[in-house]
Amino acid sequence: MRTLIPAMALSGMACLVLSSSAASQTPAQGADAAAGQQAFNNACRTCHTVKEGDNRQGPNLHRIMGRKAGSLPDYGYSSAMKEAGFAWDADKLERFMANADAVVPGNTMKPYGGLASADDRAKIIAYLQSGTAGQ
User: Fold this and answer.
1) Domains (ranges, CATH) in the chain?
2) How far apart are CA 39 and CA 27, in angstroms?
3) I need a labelling partner for 20 at 20 to 30 A (CA). Which of 31, 37, 81, 83 fits?
């Protein structure tokens, strides 16, 4: 006699397997995309978007990681940003969000005074790295 496993039990097992594999992700990979998007919306969306080609008061941040600072061809960066001489990575972006003037003196992100919450900075960086930003 064969025993059949109901489909609901199988789908529950699949969820268990998927959730246990998600638990093995690094903190940056496992960051809650919704929380990151919310932090981005609260702190950055007034001037920036993550949609490619959609520049506003600030340049779009679509695929910012690895991009050379001040390099989007269709945005009018300050000379300080154009001459910054680095590519954005998580560390540089974290420090810039905390204190833009310390990272790029003479930038034009005024009146932005920095994002005090290290937790919010981490959420925003995870969101920008997630691949969901700009979709």
Assistant:
1) 31-129 (1.10.760.10)
2) 17
3) 37
